[in-house]
Specification:
The chain is α+β, with helices and mostly antiparallel strands. Helix content is 49%, strand content 15%. The protein has a 5-stranded mixed sheet with strand order 1-3-2-4-5.
């Protein structure tokens, strides 16, 4: 399966925009497997910072993970204040404690303007962004999280396999 739509300026991107290697993760903030993948992906980005473009797309499995969608919306709200990746990271680092109120504590912890944040999380365009990420995952053949795509092609393996593959092919 291939990634649809391809990476664009509406995506959250980290690393080198012009890298030859683009990794897209479809993730769920409450998924334990995504939580396990998170430090591995951090390691990958540290090790290959200039050589990888990393993209995160929301894929909240709301039926199993009741706080995945609120967390995704909170990260999108943080993005409006230029702090998407800080929120992304702090949510994964505190995954076991997720609940609605805790998302506000995390926002405060990373220095977000809380009154603005409270307003922003109500915005329907944030829900639309999360839904649009989710739909792109469905169209691309994502059926669980985390799901990875390398240069537009679905990668069948976990974060450890991904790190291994990058180590073998990038240096």
């Amino acid at each position: 399966m291939s990634l649809k739509p391809s990476v664009s300026k509406t995506d959250h991107v980290q690393g080198n925009d012009n890298a030859d290697l683009t990794i897209v993760e479809y993730g769920d903030y409450q998924c334990p497997y995504c939580g396990t993948a998170y430090p591995v992906l951090k390691e990958l980005m540290k090790e290959f910072k200039g050589q990888v473009k990393f993209v995160f797309r929301n894929f909240p499995l709301s039926e199993m993970h009741p706080y995945a969608r609120p967390a995704a919306i909170a990260a999108e709200a943080a993005d409006l204040q230029g702090k998407f990746w800080e929120m992304h990271d702090v949510i994964y680092e505190n995954q076991q404690s997720l609940n609605e109120n805790f998302l506000f504590q995390l926002a405060e912890k990373i220095g977000i303007n809380l009154s603005q944040f409270k307003e922003d999380i109500q915005k329907t365009e944030l829900e639309k962004k999360v839904d649009s990420d989710f739909e792109s995952g469905i169209i691309s053949g994502v059926n669980g999280t985390p799901s990875f795509f390398i240069n537009g092609n679905k990668f069948n393996g976990g974060a450890e396999d991904l790190l291994e593959l990058v180590r073998e092919n990038v240096n």
